[in-house]
Amino acid sequence: MDAVVEKAISLYTVPLADDTQTSVLNFIKERLRVILQNQQHAPDLADAVLAVGDVNIIDIHKRASALAEFRLTSNFEEVYNALNRVLRILPPSVPETVDTTLFQDDAEKQLFDRITAAAPDFKQSIQERDYTKLLARLAALQPAIDVFFDDILVMAEEPALRANRLALLNKIGRNIYATADLTKLVIAGN
User: Left (φ > 0), alpha (ψ -120 to 50) or beta: where does 99 sit?
Assistant: First the structure.
């Protein structure tokens, strides 16, 4: 939809306001929010899926359905807490490269190994738009994420350690954001 709006705006022969594309896409997102809520998706779930990705109606519907299903799993609260913690600690500009030589604790190595093993599944799930599988694979990281946060001070004083730990968590965050911004979900007790 983003490309369609961009193309439509480029065809206008009269000057348009600089924020026309953003305004049109925001209008479409607001309509999608209403549609999702009419399909019995909670308002916070609609906010979470609309906060990320392009405006692609089919993709947004798939992500909303997968997240609604994920919310019903028996261990949702534990998984949500772990994944939400990852997203909340990531700054707007996040390092991309992980240097395994900077690992100081087994928890860092174990989380890295689990992420590396899951990476092909993450990539395939995103390519196939199988968000249910992606969320299940992310959920499997929850125990390693919890150990990581229990054992590791992410915001270490040494800049290289801090950047490396944030880069490691970003490998998870990028995959969460492929489905939704979980920080937008309203969970009892949070």
Answer: beta
